[in-house]
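Q: I'm writing a short methods note and want an example of a predicted protein-small molecule complex. Could you take the sequence and the SMILES for magnesium ion and return the bound structure as tokens? Please keep the output block clean; save any remarks for afterwards.
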Amino acid sequence: MDAHVIAVINQKGGAGKTTLAMNLAAGLARRGKTVVVDLDPQGSSRHWARMGKEPFPVQVEPLTGDWDREILCVRHPLCRHLVLDCPPSLENPASLQALRVCDVALIPVLPSPVDLWASLKLPQEIEEARKVNPDIKAYLVLNQMEPNSALSAAMQEAVMEFGVPVLNANMRRRAAYRGAALEGTSVYQMGGHGAPAVEELEAIITEVIGL
Ligand SMILES: Nc1ncnc2c1ncn2[C@@H]1O[C@H](COP(=O)(O)OP(=O)(O)O)[C@@H](O)[C@H]1O
Ligand SMILES: [Mg+2]
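A: Understood, no commentary inside the block.
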């Protein structure tokens, strides 16, 4: 059976793509074999996986050259979930290819309209990709949320204009996310310190794929 493919994409650097991709993959790996495909030429998810004292719970593999969904699935047989960590650019053909092959596109974004405006080309590219991949489900994932802070009116307006639904589940700004990156691990491996972040990721997984 084909893997379920989740692309984590945003042309803006620092939005939280790699943070979401790595921690999401760690959560998905508890449900079935999962691989992170590192499409960023900077190799940040591969670097992340090599940093830890313990092996990272998910294999992280680069993918270069020409590829399509079939090649992706043949390379990763028996894989239930593939998480694509995309480069911070839509000029990079790998980003557009990720949209053409994915089941779900998750777009992490900081909760500021300025950050969302920086990604305004993305909805167009999703529409373009739908010509060949009509069933893409795309969602914004708010990242680095502050506790108890409602979205500003300007942000709500920017989200409406963006035209991609926002997940109810989101990620707060947490030391655990930063720590997981620094220590080459995931919040799932961090015990009590990681628990609130794990809850957020579990909510994202439930909302996106219902598992
Ligand atoms: N929810 C969060 N809480 C705290 N730090 C975060 C959070 N999300 C991302 N970061 C930090 O922000 C920086 C950029 O995140 P990263 O995932 O590398 O973004 P991208 O892959 O989109 O460039 C990293 O230092 C990361 O540790
Ligand atoms: Mg990244």
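A: Remarks, as requested: The pocket of magnesium ion (ligand 2) is lined by residues 17-18, 40, 44 (CB under 6 Å). Residues 191-209 form the longest helix (19 residues).
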